[in-house]
Amino acid sequence: MVGGGRGAFIGAVHRMAAALDGQIELVCGAFSSDPERSKASGADLFLPAERVYATFAEMIRKEKERPEGDRMDFVSIVTPNHMHFPPAKMALENGFHVVCDKPVTFNKAEAEELVYLVDQTDLLFALTHNYTGYPMVKQAKAMVKNGELGNIRKVVVEYPQGWLSTRLEAEDQKQASWRTDPKRSGAAGAMGDIGTHAENLAEYITGLKITQICADLSTFVSGRSLDDDGNVLLRFNNGAKGVLHASQISAGEENDLNIRVYGEKGGLRWHQMDPNTLVTRWLDRPIQVLRTGVGELYPEALAAARIPAGHPEGYLEAFANIYRNVAFCLQARLAGKEPDPMHLDFPTVHDGLRGMQFIERVVESSASKEKWLSF
Amino acid sequence: MVGGGRGAFIGAVHRMAAALDGQIELVCGAFSSDPERSKASGADLFLPAERVYATFAEMIRKEKERPEGDRMDFVSIVTPNHMHFPPAKMALENGFHVVCDKPVTFNKAEAEELVYLVDQTDLLFALTHNYTGYPMVKQAKAMVKNGELGNIRKVVVEYPQGWLSTRLEAEDQKQASWRTDPKRSGAAGAMGDIGTHAENLAEYITGLKITQICADLSTFVSGRSLDDDGNVLLRFNNGAKGVLHASQISAGEENDLNIRVYGEKGGLRWHQMDPNTLVTRWLDRPIQVLRTGVGELYPEALAAARIPAGHPEGYLEAFANIYRNVAFCLQARLAGKEPDPMHLDFPTVHDGLRGMQFIERVVESSASKEKWLSF
Amino acid sequence: MVGGGRGAFIGAVHRMAAALDGQIELVCGAFSSDPERSKASGADLFLPAERVYATFAEMIRKEKERPEGDRMDFVSIVTPNHMHFPPAKMALENGFHVVCDKPVTFNKAEAEELVYLVDQTDLLFALTHNYTGYPMVKQAKAMVKNGELGNIRKVVVEYPQGWLSTRLEAEDQKQASWRTDPKRSGAAGAMGDIGTHAENLAEYITGLKITQICADLSTFVSGRSLDDDGNVLLRFNNGAKGVLHASQISAGEENDLNIRVYGEKGGLRWHQMDPNTLVTRWLDRPIQVLRTGVGELYPEALAAARIPAGHPEGYLEAFANIYRNVAFCLQARLAGKEPDPMHLDFPTVHDGLRGMQFIERVVESSASKEKWLSF
Amino acid sequence: MVGGGRGAFIGAVHRMAAALDGQIELVCGAFSSDPERSKASGADLFLPAERVYATFAEMIRKEKERPEGDRMDFVSIVTPNHMHFPPAKMALENGFHVVCDKPVTFNKAEAEELVYLVDQTDLLFALTHNYTGYPMVKQAKAMVKNGELGNIRKVVVEYPQGWLSTRLEAEDQKQASWRTDPKRSGAAGAMGDIGTHAENLAEYITGLKITQICADLSTFVSGRSLDDDGNVLLRFNNGAKGVLHASQISAGEENDLNIRVYGEKGGLRWHQMDPNTLVTRWLDRPIQVLRTGVGELYPEALAAARIPAGHPEGYLEAFANIYRNVAFCLQARLAGKEPDPMHLDFPTVHDGLRGMQFIERVVESSASKEKWLSF
To answer: How high is the ipTM of this complex?
Structure first.
């Protein structure tokens, strides 16, 4: 693991998600840019001192020197955005698979280079757009794919948060600091941090591509340099229209990612904060509320749930579904087998590049007087 | 009453709303462009035959001939859009107050003429943007006005319906026919019929003015000429940003008008389909769910509710609040008194003109390559 | 109308409910036991002074003297419980139909006498167990009747309120005063006021009869003499079991009457505070959320709704459904026709007697050491 | 681990819950009464063959022979009810701490013996009444304890499920088979399996003791011998009243454990299926919706959550909270320290005995003609 030392948020999430299903064991790490902090963090995690490294470069080098079967199988990168690319590149170049937090890199050029490297090395590269790991998101995708809604006409995807309503970064809150810092976060703030999740979710569920965007980004909190709110009109490759908005100043909102998809025959709605429920509506039939574990669901949805109906599974379980699929694919490789196609269902470096393009284009669109930019 | 004969929808709504509080009695009508139908409808409503008229012109003329105190007090106009202006104009010119369904007229020019007439005659002109009649909408407006949310930053207002997902107008469904017909509905379809409600609600609650719009209207159902879906980016006069979308092809949606308003200190959310609830969220406090009849509400909200907490009041009661305020204002005029300022809280011809401007500008914006049009 | 003068609650509800559909006109009243208050209330309601009476006896006598066609058609009784019987008896004896608030009388003996009188006179007697007027309650009843749930096994019916959590009657609150006074309310407090609604709703929807009860009533607020909370185990005539609880000290609850009915094949749930929704659950199928106005509903449900899906109808509309059915039955009688069977769907004096039996038996059961009392 | 081999449900839950926080590692097991199945299950779990045992007796014996520091620290028992006592007794007698699934034993006598053994050995014994592990349950408990609701008056606790609506046990469904078998499940069916959770939750949150019960158990599915539904009236040691009902034939219900607690000043409501929400209601203030991660919560609630507001934590996380507290207590013991009092917050063998008493008494009460049995 690279990053995720004391005080971090997403590192612990990755560790819990990786541990949940008993398929993955944390064996080493470079947990902080501060070597002392890295050591201390490793000790917290019951790791032997010799596998807690001062830098990611040391980790990759030393692990590679270990005998096969006794070295790490893959690298998890959980650092701030500007520190994704260096360890990812080095890992790939040294033959290690990669699981990387999103957005994949600091800018689009880096993402393109990673795509090139992954294609060259044929290594696995998973991107933790974790919201696609939820069973009912997979159900939604399968329903659209199987034509249950008919041709898609409209998509509304929202990602409101309120935690950056005040200038938290001025209070030295670690999560706020790097996310609002253009040198560590990249070209966009809210749009990069959570807008990309919304974009990814919309394309994942609908199977469509966004082809044109018209964006209006804002920075409401004075003293902040990156956007903390953005509204975007969308046009899709099949003629569907849509709206995407993401915000970190929607005061009082927690983490309310949600999506509505409307087709000719029906519509569906999913809320991340009530993740085991998928509400479907129909032209002339009653609303059907699909629930994880109830009635007939698509195999993709069934495989992504662990426990019976009414026993809520949440964020960590969805996150774990990405790690579990990666683990199964690695096991298949080790066994010299083709992976089960269902296990290939995790976001990759290509989704990462798409996200970087999204960031670049919404920032451009917001600054432009032209209405539509292609995407 | 003009319009609202057999087979109509909104006419019956106006009658129930007017009757509810025992302040208003239906005394005459020209219920249909078909005189026979008008007669039959009048009989259904227990009206004496001599006060059921063949045309609105006859009604206004004959009622005016009746002795004062024995003639109608005001005219309710509940016809399709293209037939609002003629009776409204004639009523005003003959000294009758007017209650008119929305949008106020067929086009902006007519609306401007009505504004002029109302200003000249000093008669009452109420527009049934009925959603502003809900107690919790009034509570929301009062909360914003009193600064409870701080400066407003973001507004999301939505009006999804699904009933025009198929070409219902081809099946001779009366409500669908005129709403999708540019000769009777006006320049816009969904945007005129329900988008104007959304626009009105957003400005009513926030007290702000929309100053710039960027719209993308669509017609998804083949063979239809007016828009059945539209997405609009908004900018407000205080720097707030927003999104408005309205749709009649959001398959399976009933009548889900809803609004979210976020300020520096908190946010609020109201859903028309759960109208007695106002959800408020705060930066560092728990969510507060305000309910009609529970705890301390603003006087405007209290006055708009009739029955205790937990006894749901709905659409007709909100609609009736407009009629009741009109009745109270008429009574004040008859008594030679100033009306209670709270009774002046109903939409007027000025809101109607604003709505016609909105229709005109979203249609223009949708056709334009320029990103922002002033509004 | 008897009762319902200034300061009353339910009288205004009856008036709005009766007025809503334009079928019923208030023509006279004895609005208060205080003649001055009665006069003033009648003036508020725009009634001619000569038809505002000092007492119900005077009203019945004088109205009877008026020529047929110019007298009241029926009497609405909206007084506290102890004053239901005298006007109801006199009205029936003088040939007037009756609409009466619930519980029907002060005690069971009075209810039995009314049943006898109604049977003798063949007059209409409607009891405003208004919750059975909701469209989705009628839908639920029809679903059970048509076997959609299979044989019924379990019923849970709840009626929690919190408004009597403190000794409001000591503050001279009118609604609290008579409801907590054994001389005006009867043998039971909460169980009479709202427990009877729950009992009525359970039997109405399921079509079953409660045959055994085991009750535990409490008075939590010190200084109060009647129960303010009660829990009851139920057994039904088909072997189903159930729970009924009603409370006026469930702090913070508004008026949350709700019911769940489970059969062999499925279950349903209805909440009075979200009345246009009926949630149905099934053994191996997704939850179906039925909504007023969406998809195929039973004719009884359709007839009880006035406006399209997503336009909420509430308490007053449900209440009005009782009045409307009564009006239709009266019109049929006047026309010498058989009423439409669907219009006979309103609670009668027999439901009233059943309620009085319920009150009597839960009070007995609560005081008894025996587990089960027959009902 | 004892039990939890292939085909089991709760064993996997225990493993995921134990693994989640990186504090506990599975080191050995006797996963099935069938030695072959035990071996295979151990291999699935990546355990070395020599630590996969044929029987729990072998496991306990052999692990005890291993050097200290290299043997298991505690035993998790996840077998059907009748097989809890033998391994628990042997583990305690051999110095191993125990985590045991609920209900703690097959009958009360066994539970009493375990209480004795735990008291004698001073070993840790955790019972996985996992629902007390949810952050908002801990918040509810703390609110009651701190008097926020005032003196408690009424408790309604429900546990409806529908999965045994048909005779699933006849189809050889493993979970159904043992739960409906008096030889493996004990004296009660639904009341033992889930009624004890409800009883435990009510006493945990309120801090009160149930002192009297009046029960009505039923077996609705023909051919079944244990209860599949039960309704119970409750009286508490402070004078509060209540209702508890649990069911496995509430068709269509998933796992809807929920509780409402009303005091003099306010009420609260928690639903297991929406676990991160705690709805609180007040006499004269708006509803407050408390959410994991939002605003000020009690330390007990904060400590039980891992990730920020709006990132749903579910059943496994609540379950893991029990394991994590056990792990922290074990670490304290190993370090020779007193445990943090907050880490002692997990159900113990005493809760287990209480549950067995509950089972015994509700069965007796249901068969009795006497209304109230002491508890």
So the answer is: 0.96
Domain regions of chain C by residue span: 10-123, 135-307+353-367
Residue D16 to residue A22, Cβ atoms within 8 A:
yes
The answer to whether domain D10-123 and domain D133-307+353-367 are alike in fold is no
CATH architecture for the domain at B135-310+353-367:
2-Layer Sandwich (3.30)
Query: pLDDT per position in chain C (375 positions), as tens?
Result: 999 998 788 999 999 999 999 999 999 999 998 999 999 999 999 999 999 999 999 999 999 999 988 999 999 999 999 999 999 999 999 999 999 999 999 999 999 999 999 999 999 999 999 999 999 999 999 999 999 999 999 999 999 999 999 999 999 888 999 999 999 999 999 999 999 999 999 999 999 999 999 999 999 999 999 999 999 999 999 999 999 999 999 999 999 999 999 999 999 999 999 999 999 999 989 999 999 999 899 999 999 999 999 999 999 999 999 999 999 999 999 999 999 999 999 999 999 999 999 999 999 999 999 999 999
Residue C12, SS3 per DSSP: helix
Tokens of B183: 């000769």
Closest residue in D to A293 (Cα–Cα):
D254
* For C282, nearest residue in chain A (alpha carbons): A295
Instruction: Give the CATH class of B10-123.
Output: alpha beta
CATH architecture, range A133-307+353-367: 2-Layer Sandwich (3.30)
User: Whole-model pTM?
Assistant: 0.97
| Cα angle A333, A339, A340; round to 5 | 160
Strands A152-160, A241-247: pairing is parallel
Q: Which residues of A touch C (CB under 8 A)?
A: 280, 282, 284-291, 294-296
Instruction: Pick the closest to residue D101 from D117, D119, D80, D131 (CA basis).
Output: D80
Of the partner residues B252, B260, B280, the one whose CB lies closest to the CB of residue A281: B252
Looking at domain C135-307+353-367, its CATH class is alpha beta
Provide the edge-to-edge strand list for the sheet that holds B97-100: B74-77, B97-100, B125-127
Query: Rounded CA gap, D104 and D94, in Å?
Result: 19
Residue A273 C-alpha, separation from nearest chain D C-alpha, in angstroms? 6
Neighbour count for residue D22 (Cβ, 10 Å)? 18
Angle at A80 between CA A75 and CA A84, to 5 degrees: 45
Which of A149, A220, A233 is the closest to B216 by Cβ?
A233
Supply the DSSP symbol for C68: T
Contact B249 A262 (CB under 8 A): yes
Say which residues have a Cβ less than 8 Å from residue B45's Cβ, sequence separation at least 6: B15, B26, B29, C22
Partners of chain D (3+ Cβ pairs below 8 A): A, B, C
Q: Which of A153, A244, A260 to mutate to test the interface with B (most CBs of B within 10 A)?
A: A153
Chain D contacts of B288, Cβ < 8 Å? Answer: 286-289
